[in-house]
Fold this protein.
Amino acid sequence: MLWVVQVFAVAAALLHVGIFVMESVRFGDPKVYQGVFRVSGAELPAARPWAFNQGFYNLFLAVTTLVGVAILRSVPAAGWALVLAGCGSMLAAAVVLVAHDRRFARGAVVQGALPALTLLAAVTQL
């Protein structure tokens, strides 16, 4: 059932690519900065640099996870290390998000559900 881990991991990575797009590419759109991230227009100039950086952090987690999935069957030790590090970091970030501000609980669930499912499926494979 290794394919289950791979499917969840790819889905988690693709979600984080989408988060990268919102944070680093589309952050100036009011639907994104106000609607998703609850940043006011007045706060936008201050928030934009951290959002840009955070977006790349999410992209790097996605790439780490995707590389892990790609090599999981051919180089299992390295593949597992990358998948677990990528998805573990994604889940940890979701926990930090909701622990810091419960208003972001929905976002934390969206951000953390697929990595959590990946890690739960991985437990059965290790």
Residues 107 and 117 are 16 Å apart (CA to CA). The mean pLDDT is 96. DSSP finds five helices and no strands in the chain. Helices lie at 2-25, 30-36, 44-71, 76-100, 105-123.
